[in-house]
Specification:
6 helices; mainly alpha; elongated; Four Helix Bundle (Hemerythrin (Met), subunit A); about 70% helix
Length: about 150
């Protein structure tokens, strides 16, 4: 007789492994996934940008919430850059697949800046948020300039 703890561990392992194996049945699923993640990140980053640029009134709570979403979501799109997803309805340049280490390093850099932005935003200081927003935006632009077709 197996212990309930052993059974629970096996079930947990299978539950975690299943999504990884079946994550993208088709390349277009991966494209749609990464585009959705980027759109979500852009929406929340845009809300921060509107506050940073004085287009909407500054709301410290909203800034912190949006920055937290950006930091979390920044990790999601990059698992969608899988083999075979370079063709189709995508603006991804071939360099993503020919320079994967450089591409991943850019993603990690952006994710790190997004975490810094989230931490700064929790402090509620608009000037510090503006500075962190600018640094994060630079990493986004750098990657888009190199790896995204216009």
């Amino acid at each position: 007789m197996k212990s309930p703890l052993s059974i629970a561990a096996v079930v947990a392992a299978l539950t975690m492994a299943l999504p990884a194996a079946a994550q993208f049945a088709k390349p277009e699923d991966a494209i749609k996934y990464r585009q959705s993640g980027m759109s979500l990140m852009a929406a929340h980053f845009g809300r921060l940008g509107a506050m940073a640029n004085g287009k909407v009134p500054f709301d410290a709570n909203a800034a912190a919430e949006n920055a937290e979403v950006v930091a979390f979501v920044s990790k999601l799109p990059f698992s969608g850059f899988v083999e075979g997803s370079d063709k189709g309805n995508t603006k991804a340049k071939p360099e993503i697949w020919s320079e994967p280490d450089k591409f991943r390093a850019g993603a990690r850099n952006m994710q790190g800046e997004a975490v810094k932005l989230s931490l700064v935003a929790k402090g509620g200081n608009l000037d510090r948020i503006k500075a962190a927003f600018g640094e994060t935006a630079k990493t986004c632009k750098g990657c888009h300039d190199t790896y995204r077709a216009q």
